[in-house]
Amino acid sequence: MTINCSTDYFIFTSNHDLQDLLIFGHNIDTWLVYVVIFFGLSSFAFLAVWFIGFLVEKKSGESIQQPWE
Predict the structure, then answer these.
(1) Of 10-14, 25-29, 36-40, which has the strongest mean pLDDT?
(2) What distance in Å separates the CA atoms of residue 33 and residue 30, rounded to the nearest whole number?
(3) What is the pLDDT of residue 36?
């Protein structure tokens, strides 16, 4: 039975095993900061799209209807 050597790279038992691992030259703490920034910006963009759509519908003068109406 052969085991692919690349699977050993991704197997770990605790978060302590990843402490000194570099992914594309950055440690895991840096990637967590990048993820938080990405989720913050994407949630801001999501809210902005809904708010702009609300303003456009309100400015059109027609009553805002529910999708099922």
Answers:
(1) 36-40
(2) 5
(3) 94
